[in-house]
């Protein structure tokens, strides 16, 4: 029996939902009617992952449609490179902080995903800096949170 892409996706979403739910149980603040606490949103997300995953799994199992090739080798390589770039971003943010690492990584990712399209160097730079600044302003000024300053500058 060949496992279909929808069956695999559904199973992964169900497992992700279970893992997220198990992680939320480690939060010490209980959910109450007056203050839902930090567990509420991840718990809702975990439930959503599991329910959607179950739906996709059942739909994929009941479907009699023939599946086409999902992703070629180049696509899997691109996913691997993207995950490596994100891992490098985490390391860079620890070293140099959010304000330096984020525009650089956004530029790298937009350049990777812009291949074959008509985007300018200036446009990707402006986009990368603008997104980083907007997120910074929202987190720091609207929410009153701090973003990593990095070991070199923080």
How would you characterize this protein structure?
- The protein is mostly helical and 154 residues long.
- It contains five helices and no strands.
- The longest helix has 24 residues.
- It is flat and about 55 Å long.
Rg (C-alpha, Å): 20 Å
Order of helices and strands: HHHHH
| Amount of helix | 55-70%
Largest sheet, described in full? none
Strand tally: 0
Figure out the total of helices: 5
- Which consecutive residue ranges, at least 5 long each, have pLDDT under 50? none
Q: Quaternary state, please? A: single chain
Sheet/helix structural class: mainly alpha
Whole-number mean pLDDT: 87
Features:
154 residues; mainly alpha; flat
How is the secondary structure organized here?
Elements (H helix, E strand, L loop, with lengths): L4 H20 L15 H23 L10 H24 L1 H16 L7 H22 L12
Helix pairs in contact: 1-2, 3-4, 4-5
In short:
By secondary structure, this protein is mainly alpha-helical.
